[in-house]
Design goal:
heterodimer; A: alpha/beta; Rossmann fold; 7-stranded mixed sheet; two-stranded antiparallel sheet; 5 helices; B: alpha/beta
């Protein structure tokens, strides 16, 4: 069985941000939105499911969870969420994990609905099939000295960043697995599947 | 830096990514494409859907790997495939061709009438059917990273899926009110590993993702299973045995997302064409029922 990590790895410099009451939405069309919601509530933030455009109204930020990007994209089109999400992303923080990172990107080299908010090109299923899914410790300077334990599931990689996007984390071979562009974040991996709250805290600081 | 593959976290993690979604049975690459375009979060690659397995009889085995590989080539979403209960060599073959999930399924003819596969030995994750909490926790104890209700596959009758969902979820609700000293006796009573009984009580839910399956044929059926508390839905014969598979598939996907919104459920349920022809389980002879397979 997967052993939960119990070490408190809170980033000291970010700790103050979580005491401010914020309302963060999690796009709940499909995927592991419940895991993000419980992580946010653990951090004392008000968290809400987003399924329709009106659910974006009073949010300070939005997380797009892991799931199947084709499913999430299709449902976003069917329920008229694409334009409202693009507008929201112009002024608010959005973080996409895995499928969410794909959805935020400008290009995935295949036809599927995308928000195109971030200057990143993403390759889906970049490591192969499920048997190639893996866990690994990554150095992420923004989160402090302790390595970050990342879970990659049929994960995409960020093939390249351009424009205003910058690299946040890479694998040892240099492949990009996290990027940031102002208040927008994209990660190939799933902080919501771990007990380490540092990435969520990092995002809350952007949403503030 | 060390990369670990095949851990329980990544096996269980893929099922977490499927939550709130619909996994559809398909028998050709064309059907797989229709399912993906309709918003399926994964497909189950098969030679025959359960309704046809029932109708044709005979021994039902793992599908031809060639067919599964063609379906894997056709879509970008995860592809699952079924092996027989206890048939670990079929599972080895499915792992070797790279399927994303294996369903050790009662829909196929069991290869072992006492033992299920030791699923810890595989890097590929497994989903297994369960009718109650004891059965679910035995399967997780053997290494299953995802559970589904058995329902009664290939009937289009949702009653057994409801029975199994209510059994598992109701037993968990009762478990959460038990005193800790009662857990060992309860574990013995339901034939479940003690550690998993303890963990389930602590979590207030199964330690892995729990989908509905077996008899789901309409958007309303799918939303019913979600409102009961399931994490997502498998639809087998219900889509491609219906009059308009693409439309019905898309409607069921929307119904799972908006399972709590009756106005949207009403909208997506309109004009779907003929549903699959159902088989009423209450008039079905015991010998034809497959949910009893599994130990």
């Amino acid at each position: 069985m997967f052993q939960r990590r119990t070490v408190d790895m809170t980033v000291p410099s970010l700790r103050s941000t979580v005491s401010i009451i914020m309302k963060i939405g999690v796009l709940a069309l499909q995927g592991d939105f419940a895991e993000h919601l419980s992580m946010l509530r653990r951090l004392g933030v008000e968290a809400a499911e987003v399924r329709l455009p009106r659910h974006l109204d009073d949010l300070d930020g939005l997380i797009i969870p892991g799931g199947e990007s084709t499913t999430i994209g299709k449902l976003a089109v069917d329920f008229d969420l694409i334009e409202p999400l693009r507008q929201f992303g112009k002024t608010h923080a959005i973080w996409g994990t895995c499928a969410g990172a794909i959805f935020l990107s400008k290009d995935v080299r295949r036809p599927q609905p995308l928000l195109g908010l971030m200057d990143i090109i993403v390759q889906r299923n970049a490591f192969g099939r499920q048997v190639d899914s893996f866990e690994a410790d990554l150095p992420i300077p923004e989160l402090g000295a302790l390595p970050y334990h990342a879970v990659f599931i049929r994960a995409p990689i960020i093939e390249s960043v351009f424009g205003e996007a910058r690299v946040l984390a890479t694998l040892p071979d240099g492949r990009i697995v996290a990027a940031q562009q102002g208040k927008l974040l994209a990660t190939s991996f799933h902080p919501e599947l771990t007990e380490d709250v540092r990435f969520h805290e990092y995002f809350l600081a952007l949403a503030r | 830096m060390e990369q670990q593959t095949g851990t329980f976290a990544v096996k269980k993690g893929l099922a977490q990514m499927l939550k709130g979604g619909v996994i559809m049975d398909v028998v050709t690459p064309e059907q797989a494409k229709i399912a993906e375009d309709a918003g399926a979060c994964a497909v189950m690659a098969l030679e025959r859907v359960p309704a046809d397995i029932r109708a044709q009889g005979g021994v039902a085995r793992m599908s031809d790997p060639e067919l599964i590989l063609k379906i894997m080539d056709a879509v970008s979403i995860p592809v699952m495939a079924k092996c027989r209960i206890g048939h670990f060599v079929e599972a080895q073959i499915l792992e070797a061709i790279g399927v994303d999930y294996i369903d050790e399924s009662e829909v196929l003819t069991p290869a072992d009438e006492e033992h299920h596969i030791n699923k810890h030995l595989f890097k590929v994750p497994f989903v297994c059917g369960a009718r109650n909490l004891g059965e679910a926790l035995r399967r997780i104890g053997e290494g299953a990273a995802m559970i589904r209700t058995k329902g009664e596959a290939g009937t289009g009758d949702v009653v057994e899926a409801v029975r199994h969902a209510r059994a598992v979820l109701g037993e968990i609700r009762r478990l959460t009110t038990m005193a800790d000293e009662e857990l060992m006796h309860y574990a013995k009573e339901i034939g479940a590993p003690y550690e998993l009984v303890k963990e389930t009580k602590q979590l207030g839910r199964l330690p892995v993702v729990n989908f509905a399956a077996g008899g789901i044929a309409t958007p309303a059926d799918a939303a019913l299973m979600m409102q009961l508390g399931m994490d997502g839905v498998f639809v087998g014969s219900g889509i491609f045995k219906s009059g308009n598979p693409a439309k019905r598939a898309a409607a069921i996907v929307k119904a799972v997302t908006h399972y709590n919104d009756p106005a949207i459920l009403a909208e997506v349920s309109r004009n779907l064409g003929e549903p699959m022809v159902g088989r009423n389980i209450s008039t079905m002879p015991e010998i034809e029922r497959i949910a009893g397979r599994g130990w």
